[in-house]
Specification:
eight-stranded mixed β-sheet; about 30% helix; alpha+beta; about 170 residues
Length: about 170
């Protein structure tokens, strides 16, 4: 599940329409924020619709996720993980991203802090009847780069978060 949440972020990292930012210095964090928020909105839309093609269009070919377990997830693994997870998620109730601090590394790369909250229904494990309401939170340190198509997320480092099952905190994440 952590991988799917990160996937949502990486998808968000990939790219969608770019708002007019001519009035903003294109090397300023504010310009990057506009595009990052647009990409994350597209990731949310793809996740809610379970549209894997739209989701993967947002993921750069050489993107990588470092999840909290230490596993590095490449684009192909991401696709497989997303499809696996979506198969047991009947509905996304809420997927929110909050873009925080942006640190520019020159004009073509930025480190972006993103907080994510994903609430969804999930089928229970081991074919138990019923569903649970799951909320995961996650903080990411993401590396975004300027490409000919606009800003894209290339690396996500998961920094931790919390898991709630039916409103009760579940274990450590």
């Amino acid at each position: 599940m952590k991988t799917v949440a990160a996937l949502a972020v990486i998808l968000a990292l990939a790219g969608c329409g770019v708002r007019e930012t001519a009035q903003i210095d294109q090397c300023a964090p504010e310009a990057v924020r506009v595009e990052v928020e647009q990409v994350l909105a597209a990731v949310t839309a793809a996740t809610v619709a379970k549209d894997i093609d739209a989701y993967m269009r947002l993921v750069p070919e050489d993107s990588v996720i470092d999840d909290t377990s230490g596993e590095r997830v490449d684009r192909d693994m991401l696709r497989a993980n997303v499809l696996r997870d979506w198969a047991i998620i009947p509905e996304t109730l809420r997927l929110e991203h909050s873009v925080g601090e942006i640190t520019m590394n020159g004009c073509d790369e930025a480190v972006v802090m993103v907080d994510q909250a994903w609430e969804r229904t999930m089928l229970r494990p081991n074919n138990e009847p019923g569903m649970d309401r799951i909320l995961t939170t996650q903080r990411h340190r993401e590396t975004w780069r300027r490409t000919p198509e606009g800003w894209r997320g290339f690396e996500i480092e998961e920094l931790g978060g919390e898991i709630f099952v039916n409103g009760e905190r579940y274990g450590a994440n």
